[in-house]
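User: Modeling request: complex.
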Amino acid sequence: MLYDDLDKLLTGRLDRRTFLRRMAVLGVATPATLAFLEACAGGQSTPQGKLGPPEGVTQDYANAHPVIFDVWDFRPDIVRNSVAEFAKEYQENCTLQVLPGDYVTTELNKLIGGSPIDMVYSQSELVKFFKAGYIMSLDDIWGKDEIQKATLPTQWEAQTYEGHLLGLPYFHSAKPMAAVNTILAEKVGLKHKYPKTWPELYQMARDAMKTGALPGPAYLPRWVPTPFEITNMWIGETQNRGGQVFDANFNPVFDAASEAAHVLEDWHSLYVDGIVPQSAVTITTDELIDGMASGRFLFAQEELYDFYRMNDPSRSLIAGHVGFAPFAGTDWGFFNYGLYSVINQKDRSVKDSDRALRLIRFFGYQNKDNQFWVAKQWAMGENLGVGYPAVYQLPEVQAFYKTWQPSADVLGFNYQAESDVISAHAHKLPIWNSPWYADFNAAAIVLLTSAITGSITVSKAIAGLKQQAESLIQTYA
Amino acid sequence: MSGSQNPPLETESRGVFAVVRTRPKSLTDAQFAYRMIVPLLAAMLALYVFPIGYSFWLSLNRINLTIPGWHFVGLKNYATALSDEAVQHAVEVTVEYTLAVTVITLLVSLGAALVLNERFRGRGLVTALIVMPWGLSTYMAAVIWRHMVSQEYGLLNGILYSLKLIHSYIAFISPSSALLVVSIAHSWQLAPLGIYFFLASLSVIPSDLYRIARLDGLGVIGRFRYVTWPYIRTAVLIVMVIVSVEAARAFDVIYFLTQGGPGDATTTLTWQIYQTTFVAFNIGYGAAMSYILVVWIFVVTTAYFMLLYRKRRASQ
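Assistant: Request completed. Predicted assembly structure:
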């Protein structure tokens, strides 16, 4: 039986998981593994194309055992349409659950409570959840090599950890970008003149305010006090300015004299000097976008995909006039991404696990007709980066870009070309791979915003941040 | 007829109920009251004992959901929490917030109740509309207030600016004023509760007492002190207890208005517990902080009720 099954495995009529389970039952798991490895070493690799879609899934079965997909509350209409398309193509049944509010916290509570979930969104908490056993690796997904070839290298790097594939692309972007209101820029004598670094932007903002031509504060920063924002901005800007917050082993390498502290000192002085509005430390991401779209700010820190909303006439008072500082030697934004990930449900059958893999392939890769169906919805619905360069070359996506991107006359450069350059230079924040980053983030938000407002000194904040990181390293050791 | 006889039936009228006893009355009022609440106590024990006991057990362990294994640490979590500067700050903010919400709610609800107790045209409609803030979810109340106080697009700034009362938009949610703004938002939502409590108490005051007080030469303040206050002071204490407890455990309004910020300006103990337990996943430590909050609320409410019963005994 061992060699019959090994033969089926090597010819793709049996997947690896089922093979090893059968061998475990027979009590020959180790010899089976050795035999498999020997066969592989002899040049016979497991045919990827054949490991595959679940078999024997009827509509009745699907209706009785829906695959469950938990999402956060962003364009649930696009997600619902995609779920409907998935169900239609595969005669499947997918239950969509929209979790409002704090997605990660709610998701964690559901996982602890044993709620059946098959697929989720994941971001910086990905590695932590994987190490805790909640996230299933996609190493067995069929067509993995083909997926990798189609994926942007930075995206692939973001979704793998220690050689394991942990998710497929939902979106990617670069942030923070230095957004520029070209109408106000012209007013203060900065037409087609862009800052090359963050300190230069801050000085330009100060000079612009001195002209008296601006309606209020010049700069709207991305100091949103939530786990996805302000701490990442601090680390990202430190890196952009040539400094380092954490080393390759996640040890804190900053102190009161480092670039990380200089960033915080700059932020504090922007706040007390009125270059930024006082509401900057309690702002939400929606208010950040609407604030820039109101036309009252010269500069803002925005996310690359949000330039669509800021240039949409139905949402923006300055549509067609919001650009960004182009790449000029230093990176502006880090690689921000969201993934689809499959939850590791211990009592889920192999068949249902394969159905979850089929769901993630549909959303995070291609549909039955080998089209990037879902990726195209996001690219054209919300201008999201989607991890697959082929999507941006589609004629309909190209036509969509032309409907809203500011012209070269307004910006002084080609929007799409510069956007591609910015994306190419964006890299994931390595600290997201540490298991304790979520804990650090919770404390960092308070320390950073307190330092900005002056409730505590910058040196005290830096000392607190370092102490927090060192304490967590010990806890997780 | 032989053997023992059943004791004679007795019928006793208690209000609209007729209680038929098969034996002489042997229950005191207190015993009867205790027996009435036994079913409720049984339900509460079933629903609360396990969660309370389990969460206390959690507080005695070091637990992080993403690190395998529990470690029993006894009262170490409590000791750490009581010496943690962040927790001490959160307790201070909680005390300030509770005081602010209680005082503002009392003043607003008492003032509104006194006005609504007078006869005027449209009183019924106004009394009905007063309930609206109470009818909203805390989330909605927080969203409404955020849209009112926002420096970028808030209604208050818009009105003040168009009336030329200000020349630049005010940051209502600043480190120095954020706690007050959140207190006002929360009080706005809680005030209708107090209004209805006070209206009920005010409605039983005989109007003759006010006439006599006027004849005696008492002014507005005198009439309030000698006529109104004796009737409403119990209601005031009850409203204080309810509002204080609501304020001490406030979460939604902070979450949706300020997220505990700016910095830690509105980081109450509840918010700290949320961050520790559900953002940092430090379950054991968060549970310990929860018990500190429970003890604090228990002490405050006990003090209130001791004051209430002492006054009641003094007046009997």
